[in-house]
Amino acid sequence: MSPLLSMMGLSSKKTIWAFFALILVLAGIAGANSAEAQNSPEKRIALVVGNAAYKTGALPTPANDAGLIAQTLQAAGFDVIGARDLDQNGLRDTLRDFLAKANASGPNTVAFVYLAGYGLQYQGGNYFVPVDAQIANATDVPVEAIRVTDFTKSLAAINNRGSIVVLDAARANPFAQSNQPLAGGLTLVEPDAHQLIAFNAAPGTVAPPEAGPYGSYAHALAEMIRLGGLSLGDVFDRTRLRVSDLTKGAEISWDASKFTNTFTFFDRAPDAPAAQVSTYDNAAIRTKAIRDFDEKDAYFAALDRDSLQGYEDFLAAYPNDSMARRVRAIIAARREAITWRETWIADTPQAYWSYLRRYPHGPHVWDARRRLDHFEATLEPPPSFTVIEYDVPPPPPTEIVYVDRPVLYFDDADFGYAPPPPVVFLAPPPPDFVVLAPPPPVVDLYVLPAPVFVPVAAWVLPPRDVAPPENNIIFNNIHNTVVNNTVINNSTTVNNTTVNETGAAPAAPGLTTGQKLAGAAVIAGAGAAVLHVALPPSIQKKAAVLQNPNPAAAVKAAAGSPVAPATQPQAGNAATAHTLPGANGQPLPAAGKLPAAQGQVQTKQVQSPQAAPGAVHNPPATTVAKPAPAGANDNAHALPGAKGQPLPVVGNTPPVKGQGQVAKTPPPQVAPAAKQNPIAAEPKPNAHAQPVKPAAAPAIATRAPAKPRAANNNQPHIAAAPPPRHVNPVAAQPRPAPHAVAQARPPAPKPQAQPRPQPQPKVAQQVKRPPPPPQKPPEKKKCGAPGFPACH
């Protein structure tokens, strides 16, 4: 810097002053950026997963628990994404999506992750199990499950305000039931900087099975989040007390925190009522000696602290208390978990020999043996080896009995645990949050259940300085009941619109009660999806593919299913049998053109019977291959011009040759020569382009040209008695006799006498099947042709 300034003509003294001035400017810029970051609103994001539909057996509560926690976090201002029943690929993609979202959210972001389902510990790490996992042996764990430790470290590496990771997954699992079982529960871990990690059950222990609809841990955590004004540590400490109370001591949750930033889920109004339990004071509870509490309060004071020292102080003060046996089991599990963690961190044969010497039948015996095998070391240590020094002393004999098994339950009848007394230091739960109704069933793939929202207390306020996420109906109505159906109650808000005057957003004045209810029902139906937690991007794509793998085919099949006949190959064509002309964006066809697609039928239901002449002219090739017109009236009700069919010409002029009116609708006109004619299969050279003289048009109406006969080769029954003139014919009715048509119909208009030669080769080519024995028409039928006398 100094040479540069000297080159600019500055003295050394001025150079020094300029250097310090530059440092001050840079410091000011950095301070301004830091102050701006501090003053910007906090952003909250969350990922919630509930895996319940395991192949090894479904769990009753994780999906509902995830829905309850997701809804609670939405109310606290979190932008929540979540899903249920994820397989391995879906779970990996979901975690990857959330890491990308957290990385893009900025430094003022707080991330919350909640995983409910089966959790496993294996070789010093915790794993979350996808629903499709097949774990027959312990070595299958890293292949079939997701290592949560890797995810938490990646999340902590992101520059943000902090992260909260909750594993509601310590359950007795059905995996690896072999002679080398896994250790029970989750392994003790240490959170990274600005991170809190919580388990539903203490390390090395499992929660008891629950029937639902919600698990005790999710229920208690949601209750404590909603209290308002509690610090992050207080929320999880009170959750532990409530879980112990709900499960009668059978489940004791755990958390470890390095979350140093100030954080509250909700604020508490200044005029909030005083706490019902005045004895709860964190500062006093955690500084007061355990021996200074009475026996009842001492147990809960130790449970609130949840430290090894606090539990040992309780046993020292009250060794004969009814809770002493339970406290010994808690100490035994915690001491063994600490010993194993230090063993795994050392990861040497000496460390594993040291563990086996302390716990020859402990939960991690098989983990230690697998590591010794990895080091190619013997199971038995040498006569002399260096025993590592642990931070905790060896367990006394009274503790070994609790950890002399792979899994530890705090409700194991073998130990005769006494149930704890009613919890102290906590107020009773809110009356409307004691028993929660199960959520409505969810039918969409991966979508979390959406419980009926219980409004938070009036003195619980939305968090200050938090950027509200978009479309968060719950956050905007924390004091109202948000519903996703058409049931309207007092103080009920649907999609941010209250349907009665007592809510936050009154309905428009002047509306009747029926109008309000109808409007609320429409809003509820239109915005039900908004109340559900959004799926992660990768899961949205996967769900779209699974629900509709072929959108075009699915729409076509769905549309055609009500009317498509069983014998109709073109199932989709029947879907628009009642479509008006030009409907669905289709242009009206020009007269004289072929149908838009094969199998489309033009009928004359709304047309006068006079439009029937020429109905047998040149049917499409698809009708030639059809087996007679029985059941061909599926489209008998199609209006003129529907499905691309041409509209009739003014004056009911019969369609010209090539207009393909299918023989499904029996026409009232058949030429006398419509009998089986070999001319159709073997057309004469002059039969393709022989024009008919205009003067002979009336006589031609009494006979059929050579071209239409090809369509009648496979229909020997068309010469039956004619149907009534003024009744719309159906496909099953026989065609009228030629002479009846000639007598009943007026002379055909002039366009009839102008046949087109183009379709004739096509019809002749499409008649693949050998025709019936030809019946030659009488020679007198050749009248009117060149070289023959005129017809009379």
Show the helix and strand layout:
Layout: H1 2-7, H2 12-39, E1 43-50, H3 62-75, E2 79-84, H4 88-104, E3 109-116, E4 119-122, E5 125-128, H5 141-144, E6 146-147, H6 148-156, E7 162-168, E8 195-199, H7 216-225, H8 232-246, E9 254-257, E10 267-268, H9 282-287, H10 295-305, H11 308-317, H12 324-346, H13 349-358, H14 365-374, H15 397-403, E11 460-461, H16 473-476, E12 481-482, E13 492-494, E14 497-498, H17 513-526, H18 528-531, H19 537-547, H20 551-560, H21 621-624, H22 678-681, H23 697-700, H24 738-744, H25 759-766
Parallel strand pairs: 1-2, 1-3, 3-7, 7-8, 12-13
Antiparallel strand pairs: 4-5, 5-6, 8-9, 10-11, 13-14
Helix pairs in contact: 3-7, 4-19, 7-8, 8-10, 10-11, 11-12, 12-13, 12-15, 13-14
**Main CATH class of the domain at 40-271:** Alpha Beta
The CATH topology of the domain at 40-271 turns out to be Rossmann fold
CATH architectural designation of the domain at 40-271: 3-Layer(aba) Sandwich
Number of E strands = 14
Alpha-carbon distance between the two ends? 119 Å
Flag low-confidence runs.
1-10, 32-37, 484-528, 553-644, 647-755, 759-768
Beta fraction: 5-15%
Mean pLDDT: 73
Number of H- or I-type helical stretches: 25
> Could you tell me the radius of gyration in angstroms?
42 Å
Biggest sheet descriptor: 6 strands, mixed
Looking at the structure, what is the overall shape? Answer: globular
Summing up helix and strand content along with how strands pair, one would put the structural category as alpha/beta
Q: Order of strands in the sheet with the most strands?
A: 2-1-3-7-8-9
Helix content: 25-40%
